[in-house]
């Protein structure tokens, strides 16, 4: 998993707007993000630690006048590396960003000790920079958006392919396989069957069926056999009639 900036870093340090979920945060256009993604692509690459931060391990990343701090999470985490702080080097200074980061962490430690009975034993308190629930939520929203965009594209491709030759077309998704059979008869009816192999929640089934063009949402019925065979134990299927006009438009490549 590639490096990502935290939402706080993106908004407050880099002063960039949060893009739509169609844009992964690691792909936001900024020289520091690009450099950090490049530098931390290989986990075996050595990095320079920010020694003035002693409560968590942060690493330096530099490009042009930009300076940043990268936190490396547990290798088992969905996102391993995070750009958690950023700033610009002023003219005539080499390490002002890291000095300022240290002062901020010391001030945070003083505030924490003033508000808690048990004082921190570290010189710095930088936990507030680390990724939080907002970052986890954003990552999952992006993943869901990517899945829906792929589902939209794959479903249309499968329907179009089956319309063209009358055979089942299928594609694999994480945890399940989706198959589509579309057949038009001389009576001007177009039959469509959706086959899912694997265990999926009902809400996902509804999402899939809703993406079949030209089919009434309340006209889907469960099937116990496909046109050429019975269902296997791990399979489930639904059928509907497709609007011939929608089928013709899709076969013609129209959206």
Domains counted in the coordinates: how many?
Answer: 2
Give the DSSP E fraction (strand runs of 2 or more residues): 15-25%
Q: Within the largest sheet, what's the order of strands?
A: 5-6-7-11-8
Relative helix content:
25-40%
Describe the structure.
The chain is α+β, with helices and mostly antiparallel strands and 255 residues long. It folds into two domains: 128 residues, no CATH class; 110 residues, no CATH class. 34% of the residues lie in helices and 24% in strands. The chain has a five-stranded antiparallel beta sheet. Strands 1-4-3-2 form a four-stranded mixed beta sheet. It has a two-stranded antiparallel sheet with strand order 9-10. Strand 2 and strand 3 form a beta hairpin. The model has no long low-confidence stretch (mean pLDDT 91).
Q: What is shown here, in short?
A:
With 255 residues, the protein is an alpha+beta fold. It is built from six helices and eleven strands.
Give the helices and strands, then pairings.
Blueprint: E1 4-5, H1 7-13, H2 31-39, E2 58-63, E3 66-72, E4 81-88, H3 96-115, H4 133-165, E5 169-173, E6 176-184, E7 190-197, H5 202-210, E8 221-223, E9 225-226, E10 229-230, E11 235-242, H6 244-251
Notable traits:
about 35% helix, five-stranded antiparallel β-sheet, about 260 residues, four-stranded mixed β-sheet, 6 helices, 2 domains, alpha+beta
């Amino acid at each position: 998993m590639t490096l990502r900036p935290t939402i706080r870093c993106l908004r407050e340090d880099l002063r960039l707007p949060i893009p739509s979920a169609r844009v992964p945060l690691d792909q936001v256009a900024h020289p520091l993000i690009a450099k950090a993604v490049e530098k931390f692509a290989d986990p075996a690459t050595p990095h320079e630690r920010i020694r003035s931060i002693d409560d968590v391990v942060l690493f330096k990343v530099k490009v042009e006048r930009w300076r940043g701090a990268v936190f490396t999470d547990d290798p088992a985490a969905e996102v391993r590396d995070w750009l958690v702080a950023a700033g610009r080097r002023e003219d005539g200074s080499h390490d002002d960003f890291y000095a300022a980061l240290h002062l901020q962490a010391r001030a945070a430690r003083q505030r924490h000790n003033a508000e808690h009975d048990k004082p921190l034993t570290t010189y710095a308190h930088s936990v507030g920079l680390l990724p939080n629930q907002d970052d986890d939520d954003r990552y999952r929203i992006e993943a869901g958006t990517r899945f829906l965009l792929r589902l939209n594209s794959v479903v249309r491709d499968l329907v179009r392919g089956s319309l063209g030759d009358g055979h089942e077309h299928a594609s694999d998704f994480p945890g399940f396989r989706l198959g589509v059979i579309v057949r038009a008869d001389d009576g001007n009816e177009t039959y469509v069957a959706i086959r899912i192999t694997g265990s999926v929640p009902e809400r996902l089934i509804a999402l899939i069926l809703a993406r079949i063009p030209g089919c009434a949402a309340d006209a889907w019925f469960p099937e116990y056999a496909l046109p050429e065979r019975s269902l296997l134990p791990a399979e489930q299927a639904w059928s509907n009639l497709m609007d011939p006009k929608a089928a013709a438009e899709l076969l013609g490549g129209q959206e």
